[in-house]
Each structure stands twice: as C-alpha cells, then as structure tokens.
Amino acid sequence: MERRNFIRLATIGTGMCLIPPALYFVAPGVKEYACVILKRELYYLKLEPKGVVSFVDDYFKATGNDLLSNLKWKGLFYLKSGWDKSDRVRDLLKYYLLSSDFFINKTDESKTVNYLGLFNSYKSPMPNPYSFILYPPSDIKEV
Amino acid sequence: MKFSHYDLVVVGTGFASTFFLKKYLSKVGRKKKVLVLEKGHFYPHEERLKSERGESSSYKKYASPWQDNIKNLNKKKVWQFTTAYGGSSNCWWGCTPRFMPNDFKMKSMYGIEQDWPVSYEDLDPYYYEAEELMSVSGPENTPFPRTGKYPLPPHQFSLVDKILHKKYGNKYVSQATARASRGIATRNGCMALSTCHTCPVNAKFTIENGNMGVYDNDQVELLYGCQVFALETANDVIKKVLFQKDGKDYEVSGEVVVLGSNPFFNSNILLNSGDNNPLTGRGIGEQLGMQVQIYLDDMQNVGGSSWVNANGYMLYDGIHRKDYAACLIEVNNAPYYIRVERGKHLNVASFRMIFEDLPLNSNFVKNSADKLVPEVHFEERSNYALKGIENMKKKLPSILSCLPVEKIIYQDTEPNEGHIIGGTRMSADRTNGVVDKHMIHHQYRNLFVLGAGAFTTFGPSNPTLTLSALSLFAADKVF
C-alpha cells in the first residue's frame, strides 16, 4: 500500500468515532461524493453530466441514504477507494453502466454515455448487456 | 362445494397436480367429478408485473411469502416457493433438462442410496409429453437419450457457449427450457432479461399461461383459500380430506385423493393424519449451488438468448459418483455480473455449479402445534455434496482450458436452489420409502402423493420436468 493511501486509511480508520460528525457537516453532500467517484473511476468515458446527477439521485433513493451510509461514502471519497477496493463503488459503477446507453452503444468509449433510468427489467429500456438483443447471432463469430 | 363426495379430490394446483389432472381427465369418463383445493388464490401474471413495477394492484393481498407458510428452523437455509394458483410455476425459472438415466439407478451403478422404482425408459414417453405441454425449447443432440426436435428451437449460443460446445459436443448444450425461444400463442419469446421469477415478457411456461384445459374443464371444481391439514383414514383407506377455509374447518370425501402440494405440506398433511411410516417427512432437501465467475482475457461473452443459456455435463455422470456428487453446470447470462475494468465489461462467463445431495434423515419436516404450519428442520449438507465441490474446483481450470481464462472466482454456496425435494420418497417396497412407483402411498392405496417429494435421490438436474412427467406417468398407468 502506498504511504499516502495508508495515511488516509489510518486517518479515517482511527478517526471514525471522532471525525465523522465533522465530515458529515463540513463536507459536501454524499451524492456529490458519489458523483465524483463515478466520474473519477470512469475517467475514460464521456459521461453526460446531468444524467450522472439524476442517476445518483435515483440510486440513493433506491438503496437508502442514512447517516451510516453517508459516512461510508465519505470514507470512500477521502480514501480515494476505487472499484477494486470497495464493493460499494463497484456496485455504483455497475448500476450506472447498466442504467445507461453504454452497452447499447456496444461499450464504445468515443460516444457520450447517457443515463436512461435506473436498471430494472420491468421498467427500464436497457436490455441484458450480454444478450442477443444487442449481439445478434450474425455478430457471434464461428469458432 | 357443489358436492360432499367426489371421484377425485386434489390438493394444490402446481405442476404435480395439473399434469396429473391433465392425464386423468383424458382417461376417465365425463361423469367423474373432481374437486381441487388450492391453499392460495389466483394472482394473475399481469398483476404480478404491476407489483414488480411498484404499481398498485388489488391482488397484492394474495402475495403469500414462503416464510409465512412454514416454520423454518435453520435461518441460514432459504426455501423459495409460491402459494397461489399454479403454485411454483409462478416463481420457477423455467429450466427443464431431463434427468440422466443413471440418476434413477444410483444404488446399482454407484452404490449410493437407493434405485428409483421407475427408470428413464419408463418415463421417456412422458418426458416427451411434458415437453410438448410446456413447449420446451432445446437442442437436437442431448446428453440424455432423446430423439428428434424439441417443440421449439434452442436458444442462441454465446461465444463462450460455442467454444465449449465445439470442445465437449453433447456434454455442453443449449439448455432445454420452458422459456420460449420464439413467441407462441400464449407466450412471447424470451428476451434474456434474467428476472424469470416473474417473467417481464411472459415467455416462461406457467400453469396460468399453459392453456392445458384442466381447470376450465366443467368436471373440475376449483376452490381457493382451502388449507388442507389432514386426511381421515379407516382401515388404511383415505375417507375424507380435512381443510380450513376462512378460519373454519370443513371436510369432503373422495374415492381417490391426490396430494399435490409441495413436499413440506404433503409431509405435514400425512403426519397430521397419523401416517407412521418412519420415512414420512424425512430426507427433505435440495441440490447445492455455487456461483462461479470466469474472467476472460480479450473475449466478450455475448450473444446468449436466455437466462440459463447452456448446460454443461462435463462433471455430471461417471464413476466419480461412487465417491462424490455429480455437478450440473448452468451457464448464466447475468447482467449484474458485468465487470468494471476498462475494456473488459463483458469479458466474463457466469456459471452456476449445481451439486446433487443425499436425502439425509437428519433433515426433516415435522408437524407442529399449528396444524397448518410444518416445521422444517434442515441440519446439514452431505459430505458427498461437499466433496463434489472440492472436485469441481480441481477440475474446472482444466475444463476451461479452451478459453482465455484470466481468473476464476468461486462464490460461497447458495442458501437455496428453489427445488424442494424429499419427504415422501419413492421405493419398490414400504421399508425403503413412502410411495410406490406410481406415487401411491404404500399404506393408503387410494392416495397419490405427487411431486419432487417422491424423488428417491436428488440428482443435480432441475426437478420440474421430471416431477411433471411422473404425474403423467402415474395417472396414465393407474386410470
């Protein structure tokens, strides 16, 4: 672990009982942290900005947004935790990508990624990203 | 109730009862009267969709979570089932592979448990019939003996499927499934949306959309909200069926009685009725599942056309079953297993490894102080199943050597497979089981006890097609 990260981790880890109230009141809202994390992790994509905010709103509505959750998200922000260290970040990224036109555009990084509505097979227009809807049989090369 | 006596009284409206009735009605005269007692209510698919979308539905009051219906003493164990018209056809995922022939002869082939009193060959014509009734989609070459085409063509292979099929032939095939690969009169084609419990496009077979002509037959009277809790017996003959509706007890007499509710309730009814067979309620269980993700380097696993796109039989049958469990591979198109690394989002194959287990008598159903609610005591998995997992972990890397595997991630074992099996096992004689080959109770000869409760052993394949074929077989042979 890099020293800088270690210090951040130690600060958050040991300070969880002392720092959180300060973090909670001083730092920007938890949704902003999530937006920043999303943009940071998906730096290689052009994310439509309003869609990112809308997604994060919907995501937190669906997954809860209590005090404990806020603190954990802030922790992730200050730790600069990426998807490889945090299941929360991984879930956030997965849901964003599934809820966007990223897979409809065949994971084309050159195209702007638009939010289409929270991924839900009963409501969302987003098909299963693996499926024949996006990759018809003619696209699957014979082996 | 229109009458106080019926030629046939049936408990439950799930697969077991419905397929039995389908055959029964085709064989008996028009004068026979049938009463069907369903514990739940009719909760239409369209209304279930509204609930899934978060919309209001006046039918929501009929949702009956499984946890409210049994006393489950092992909180780590989950048992999924639906109490409603059509039973668990409402929540099943539509997987319909046949059993392998050796699944029926585990004792004679491998020295494990007991042989079934029926064989694959006995069931073969009824497998075809059940597959027709469910309009199953499947491939032409299967690992189990079967000739000709399935009613519907197979689902599309993904790239990983194509590679594995090329290497393993009929040991890796498109899954036989009741998720329609094409639209038919009462169902749409599967869209691989992977929420099959309530199919968003009504592609999977259910009793509701099955168009089987059973419950709209004018010989059949169907009553909802009737909780059967016991049978009245005299001289080893079932005389009456006792049930509760709206808090009040009722009874009805039947010439022949069929228990077609799930294994928990079939066992509970028998135990409440004084059935003293030491195996009644014993050996309850199901297969053991484990999800495995296979991360692929530079290969997108795309193009599949259903939730379980393929089945792998490379770890299924063979001499190893003397020592450890067979494993069926289910190959999933699961959207939530996408990767988040740049450029590798779809470079993953998701396998569900399903291991057979043994009907251990330490896992059992017991009746409780509440006659309507069975107690489920599930203590343990067999070493046989657990050794199967260890073997799978040793063999899987080599099996997948034809793929560009980056890494394999083994998840924890799953708390349920949605398959409740055992409790009224089938046997050639009454010392080894509860029902005979026609699923007639060894002691009460006018009583059928249907469903997966009658399975003698728990092969790794999904049970629904086989229990449906058994119902057709029993009704055909007896009436």
The poorly predicted ranges of chain A are: 1-27
What portion of the residues of chain A fall into strands of 2 or more residues?
Answer: under 5%
Class based on secondary structure composition and strand pairing of chain B: alpha/beta
Radius of gyration of chain A: 18 Å
What helical percentage do the residues of chain A reach? 40-55%
Mean pLDDT of chain B: 97
Q: CATH topology of the domain at 5-147 and 195-283 and 419-478 in chain B, which one?
A: FAD/NAD(P)-binding domain
The portion of residues forming beta strands of chain B comes to 15-25%
Spans of chain B with pLDDT under 50 lasting ≥5 residues?
none
Structural class of chain A: mainly alpha
Instruction: Report the count of strand segments of chain B.
Output: 16
Largest sheet of chain B: 7 strands, mixed
CATH-defined superfamily of the domain at 5-147 and 195-283 and 419-478 in chain B:
FAD/NAD(P)-binding domain
Distance between the termini of chain A: 42 Å
Name of the CATH first level of the domain at 5-147 and 195-283 and 419-478 in chain B: Alpha Beta
Q: What is the residue-averaged pLDDT of chain A?
A: 76
Oligomer, anyone?
heterodimer
Question: Could you characterize the architecture of this molecule?
Answer:
- The complex is a heterodimer of chains A (143) and B (479).
- Chain A has 6 helices and 2 strands.
- Chain A is mainly alpha-helical and 143 residues long.
- Chain A has one domain (3-125).
- In chain A, strands 1-2 form a two-stranded parallel ribbon.
- In chain A, helix 3 packs across helix 4 (49-63), helix 3 packs parallel to helix 5 (67-79) and helix 3 (30-41) packs across helix 6.
- The longest helix of chain A is centred in the middle third of the chain and has 15 residues, at 49-63.
- Chain B has 479 residues and is of the alpha/beta class.
- Chain B has a domain at 5-147 and 195-283 and 419-478: FAD/NAD(P)-binding domain.
- Chain B has 8 helices and 16 strands.
- Chain B has helices at 15-27, 45-52, 106-110, 120-133, 159-168, 263-272, 383-399, 464-478; strands at 5-11, 34-37, 71-72, 172-174, 220-223, 226-234, 237-245, 248-259, 288-296, 308-312, 327-332, 348-355, 364-366, 375-377, 405-413, 447-449.
- In chain B, the strands form 3 sheets. In chain B, strands 1, 2, 5, 6, 7, 8 and 16 form a 7-stranded mixed sheet that branches. A 6-stranded antiparallel sheet of chain B has the order 4-10-11-12-9-15.
- The longest helix of chain B is centred in the last third of the chain and has 17 residues, at 383-399.
- The relative contact order of chain B is 0.19.
- The model of chain B has no long low-confidence stretch (mean pLDDT 97).
- The A-B interface holds A 41, 44, 83, 90, 93-94, 97-98, 102-103, 107, 119, 121-123, 127-137, 139-143 and B 49, 52-53, 156-159, 162-163, 166, 191-195, 198, 200, 300-305, 333, 335-336, 338, 340-343, 345-346.
